[in-house]
Amino acid sequence: MISEDESVALEMGDYSPQYEKQGQDSGFGLTSEMHSQIAGKMFELGTTKAKEAFSLYGRIDILRPYFDVEPSQVQKRLISALIPEKLTGTPPVIVSELYGPLMVVLTLIAVMLAGMKATGQTVQEGTLMGTAIGTCFGYWIGASLFFFGLAYFCDTNLSPIEVLSLCGYGLFGTLLCMGLSTLLITSASNLFFYATWGVLGVSSAVRMGYVFLDRTAVRKQGLTVAVVVASVHLLFILYLKFVYHKTYEAAAKINPIHVR
Description:
- The protein is mainly α.
- Helices cover 77% and strands 2% of the residues.
- A two-stranded antiparallel sheet has the order 1-2.
């Protein structure tokens, strides 16, 4: 389309192709500016994504020291979780490590699911697996937070990671009680369970309580924390044996699938 200036130039016989050239240069400049803006946006977006990736790696790298442990050390700590230091006369050793407790919790979940399968029934849609995961991880994290809050108010010198590790290793006694009583003994007899609960469960509970007592400045407050921690630990074992099992057995009766 010819502009007004070009029309005047044509009428005066003084038209030059420079008008057409100027229009082409203007369009080319606009396109280059758009390309520059798009490239800038893409570069900014890529930079943001790279920063997020590095930030995520940094957060994961923070957790690495809590899982950097040798298997032989984990075995020793599992055994020490069943032996109160008061009996050996040695000061309690508290570690800030989460690999062993995590393995204990995952194994406890597997034992609970195996006990369910031993009954010859299961439930659709993964109900029992979700319940087992929620119960075990819920107790580990929830009880650790409760113990740490109690320790904080009673002036107990324990960090959140130490409490989480202590509670996780304490579940090793629970794992042995549930594993031996559920997988090796029929559900008709509870005598063996009470025997394992009285030996393994109590020993792990006493060990946990003694650690809290040793780390508390005021002995009276330390005794209070120790009794509460040991009682909660022992009650959780009873819950898994008598309450949780009845829950999944009732669910199996509602919607049974016979396993061959």
